[in-house]
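Notes from hallway chat w/ T.B., transcribed later so I don't forget. T.B. wanted the structure written out for a chain they're using in a teaching module, and asked if we could keep both sequence and structure tokens in one place. Agreed to drop them here.
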Amino acid sequence: MSAAVRRTVLWGALLALYTAVLLRQAGPGSTVSASEGFDAMDSRSRAAERAIAEARFQDAAPLVDELQRLHPRSAYYAYLAAATFNGLERPGEEAAAWEAFVERSSIPEEACPAMPHAYERARNAIQALTAFERCVGFDRDDAERWLDLGDALVRAGREEAARDAYRRAHDLDADHPLVLERLYGSAPSGDAR
């Protein structure tokens, strides 16, 4: 399994954990008492979150679609859509949902590296490379982002630009084993770099 696939799987696990935490904070059964009233949107949102946390993506899809239609400026519902499409293995739609998240969110870097990996799974190398470049732009001090960009540049046949990206990642994290592997072919032993 490639590093990119492992990171995407890890992202999915983290999303499930995050959603489970949200549901736990909502309380057992996530119900609203009659004295508090009933909010249909909140009910749909919680049902979508629960379906995603339980990997019932087919159940989540219509709920998330409705929530996005009713709240077209919501970054959170774009996030839920990306998680749903990831679970349904529909990478083109997942990438589009991440684009919506980036457009709507005050923290667009949260779409990285999931957004460019979705483009890669959709076999859209040009968009993937552009998305990796955008991710570096969100946080130029993140060695992982530079490493991902370098890997994407290698896949695009741009080895010299990839080496520059790996060097930048090395400047940020000189001990990162994957950076050392990309620059030297294997992690050098001792101080002989």
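Follow-up for T.B.: Residues 19 and 97 are 17 Å apart (CA to CA). Might be a good example for the class.
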